[in-house]
Amino acid sequence: MKNKMLKYYLCGPTVYNFPHIGNFRPAITFDIIIRAKRFLGDNVFFLNNITDIDDKIIKRAKEENKSEKEISQKYEKYYWEQYKNFNLNMPDRVARVTDSLKDMTDYIEVLLQKKAAYQVGINVFFDVKKYESEYGKVSGQKISNLNYEEDKFSKRNPFDFVLWKDTNEGIKFDSPFGEGRPGWHTECSCFINKYFDGETIDIHGGGIDLIFPHHENENIQHFALHGKPLSKGWMHFGTLNYNGEKMSKSIGNIIYPHDFFTKYDADTYKLLLLTTNYAKPINLTDELLISNQAIIDRFKVIKAKVELENVEENIDKKIVKEVIELIANLQFAEANKIILKLSKQKESAWTFLEIAKILGFIFPTKNVDKETKAEYEKWKVLVEKKDFEKADQLRKVLQDKKVL
């Protein structure tokens, strides 16, 4: 095993609603990459956050006549249930805002001590102007080119962002600055600072819509404290579009996991993500999903066949390593081509299944049950006896079970 620990961080959900399948693209892709890295011997520590204090949560709590805690717990529970459904490994550490308020106020106090932030009443703002030459390194945005609408806060500069805010709505928390709640941009940089001891991490991931201002603001806080960037590499995941439009709650063209799973396998979505670069948008159509499901159904037959026919295990470790290295280096489409090619070659069945298992696909782990094994043996006898009418009837049963 390699000794160096790779530090990975992914922006987690704001738990106010059911996440749609597009929201899971970062988590599933991270899981695939981390599985590949670990197989190759890397020691990866994966930190994920949960935003369980937010205006959206407060709004939903009012709509449902529930507490913010009830709302956040309900939707966080759903989120982790989908981790199981998609066969994702849990993060090594999950950091929730509500569990980390002392960490966040301590973090903000250090920014104040370093004169990187300033306080106006209860509100605390980050002084972006002081780091103008560094601001924009993540997103490419420049302060001089930004247009900001006036807001209700009394700030030195319109582009300064809030670290701790006074509020008249929703839950409030005690702090050295007064009762209020933390700003969104501070939680991720605070968690990275705490759990990775202020070090620059290796990979920071999140949706493409988080590049600015969220990731930019995270990075500038870390720079103010440590004089170095927050992350060596940033992964910004492309959108998932449905019938040509970005999947969005506001548009109403979303597919929730619980609806997706009524028609398709989790593996179907995972396979789709391997067809293109992680940063590129994917345009979903029903035809594309049906096509990918058909491929997964064929994969299931391969797994069943090697088991039912007791095919001797023969794994080409060189090819396995080659494909997993492609995945670890984010060359998804190239890896996918090889995977599909292997799936079509009878002699490569075990190599194909080994790769799929390493990447977290579910179908290689499913064993044929006793009843189906008995039906398969009976079908073979009927074929041998040339009792084709009964054989065809049983073939249909076995095809429905994805073993023929």
TrEMBL record:
Residues given in the record as Zn(2+) binding sites: 11, 188, 214, 218
Principal location listed in the UniProt entry: cytoplasm
UniProt GO BP: cysteinyl-tRNA aminoacylation
The enzyme's E.C. designation: 6.1.1.16
Record motif 'KMSKS' region, residues: 246-250
Residues binding ATP: 249
Family (UniProt): Belongs to the class-I aminoacyl-tRNA synthetase family.
Entry protein name: Cysteine--tRNA ligase
Primary gene name: cysS
